[in-house]
């Protein structure tokens, strides 16, 4: 519990008093999400990228053909994300996974 408290309130101490390793989410979570949707019977095009990002960095998934057909508010910044008729909004970008 002390480590979590320090991480939240005094992150600069983490490199001095504790090891730098922090457990994180499985790197393969994207393929696991896709596999779960396909197994459930969702109409997902398997060889198409379905991951998108808002200009604020929020990552989201678009099902079926993987192209935007609806506009929604980004939970991270409230800008319009998604799109209509396969055309994304100005704040929506296909995630190239370059951060992985």
Structure description:
With 100 residues, the chain is α+β, with helices and mostly antiparallel strands. The chain has three helices and six strands, in the order αααββββββ. The strands form two sheets. It has a three-stranded antiparallel beta sheet, with no helix packed on it. β4 (80-84) and β5 (87-88) form a beta hairpin. The longest helix is centred in the middle third of the chain and has 11 residues, at 29-39. The model has no long low-confidence stretch (mean pLDDT 81).
Helix content: 10-25%
Q: What coarse outline follows from CA principal-axis ratios?
A: extended
Strand content: 15-25%
Structural class given helices, strands, pairing?
A: alpha+beta
- Main beta sheet: strand number and arrangement? 3 strands, antiparallel
Taking the alpha carbons of the first and last residues, their distance comes to 29 Å
Distinct helical segment count: 3
Sheet with most strands: strand arrangement: 2-1-6
Q: What is the helix/strand order? A: HHHEEEEEE
Kindly provide the radius of gyration, computed on alpha-carbon positions and rounded to a whole number of angstroms.
18 Å
Low-confidence stretches: none
Mean pLDDT: 81
Number of DSSP strand runs: 6
């Amino acid at each position: 519990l002390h480590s979590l408290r320090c991480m939240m309130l005094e992150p600069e101490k983490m490199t001095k008093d504790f090891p730098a390793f922090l457990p994180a989410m499985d790197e393969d979570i994207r393929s696991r999400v896709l596999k779960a949707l396909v197994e459930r019977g969702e109409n997902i095009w398997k060889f198409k990228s379905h991951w998108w990002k808002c200009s604020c960095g929020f990552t989201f998934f678009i099902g079926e053909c993987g192209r935007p057909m609806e506009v929604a508010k980004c939970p991270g910044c409230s800008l319009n994300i998604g799109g209509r008729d396969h055309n994304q909004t100005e704040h929506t970008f296909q995630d190239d996974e370059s951060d992985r």
